[in-house]
Amino acid sequence: MRRIYELMILVKPVEEGRYKEINDWVLERIKEFGGELVEPVDEWGKRKLAYPVEKFKEGYYTVFLFALPPENLEEFKHLLKINEDILRFMLLRKEKLEKKYKDKLVPSAETTEESAE
After folding, report:
1. CA 73 – CA 5 distance, rounded (Å)
2. Backbone phi, then psi, for 14, in 5-degree steps?
3. All domains of the chain, ordered by start, with CATH?
């Protein structure tokens, strides 16, 4: 049974194309670990930071809302930590949304077949 998580990432101020690549990388990792988006990705874009983070005064924010098996969470978080383009991230379990997206919590037949191979 999967759970609903909200992930906010803060990406270094890189070129626009590189920012899209980093978001795609995060999406690929979510799918790789048996997850799927439950809402479209919310790209906030480039924002000025309240205080410098690793000497950067601005960065790109993105929010992902997705379902993921809890047993894959620690490895997913580890990959976020070692990605040099991600300055900070915040990952929260959204228990209140699990009733709303209950159809996304049970893996689809396709996902189950792929993991069996």
Report:
1. 10
2. -110, 180
3. 3-112 (3.30.70.60)
